[in-house]
Design brief:
It is an enzyme of class 1 (oxidoreductase). Keywords: Oxidoreductase. It comes from Nonomuraea spiralis. One of its GO terms (molecular function) is oxidoreductase activity. By secondary structure, the protein is an alpha/beta fold. It has a single domain (5-186), classed as Rossmann fold. The chain has 5 helices and 6 strands; from the N terminus they run βαβαβαβαββα. Strands 1, 2, 3, 4, 5 and 6 form a 6-stranded parallel sheet that branches. The protein starts with a strand and ends with a helix.
């Protein structure tokens, strides 16, 4: 049997991103679960343009789609930009969800997010859930991991230091793993 894999996407391109740090923390906490690979190509994807979405899409798009297709599930960490998801994340979802591939239909997806503000990424996650529902992804509903005041929950080296957030991440990964098994059996 092949090892199960989770592809982790950060909606932040910032080098010192708390959302990317959240994905690294998830990978560290996911002992014995599916392997987590952190995607680093979102910033290289061109803006979605249907004229480019042909039988031979741009190389970064083809490579990204191949990694999405190979993954058994996705873990997305999103910051909140203007009460919604960052453009780079929406762009990646557009490339992954458009015909003919429609790679997100039925794919298990878990969502988390970090923000220095008092509400975490609540509104971004709400918008992301709506987008993912529209493309047919199987979104993990609970727990909701909205890391507010994230600058106090990570060390200066971007390592997660908050045990409550760590517990929530473990619960989220467990819930995602439970969704992955029926999905992979149907493949």
């Amino acid at each position: 049997m092949n090892e199960l894999t989770i592809l982790a996407l950060s909606g932040s391109l910032r080098a010192q991103s708390h959302n990317t740090a959240l994905l690294h923390a998830a990978r560290t906490l996911n002992l014995g679960g599916p392997a987590i690979a952190i995607e680093d190509a979102l910033g290289r994807l061109p803006l979605y343009n249907q004229d480019l979405d042909s039988g031979t899409p741009p190389v970064p798009v083809a490579d990204f789609r191949a990694r999405i297709a190979a993954a058994d599930a996705l873990l997305i960490a999103t910051p909140e930009h203007n009460a919604s998801v960052p453009a780079v994340l929406k762009n990646a979802i557009d490339w992954a969800s458009t015909p003919p591939e429609g790679l997100l239909r039925g794919k298990p997806v878990a969502i988390a997010g970090a923000s220095p503000g008092p509400f975490g990424s609540v509104r971004a996650q709400l918008a992301l859930r709506q987008i993912l529902a529209a493309v047919g992804a199987e979104v993990v509903v609970k727990p909701e991991v909205t890391v507010f005041h994230c600058d106090t929950r990570f060390t200066s080296e971007r390592e997660l230091s908050d045990p409550y957030t760590a517990d929530l991440l473990r619960e989220l990964l467990d819930a995602l793993s439970r969704k992955v098994h029926p999905y992979t059996a149907a493949k």
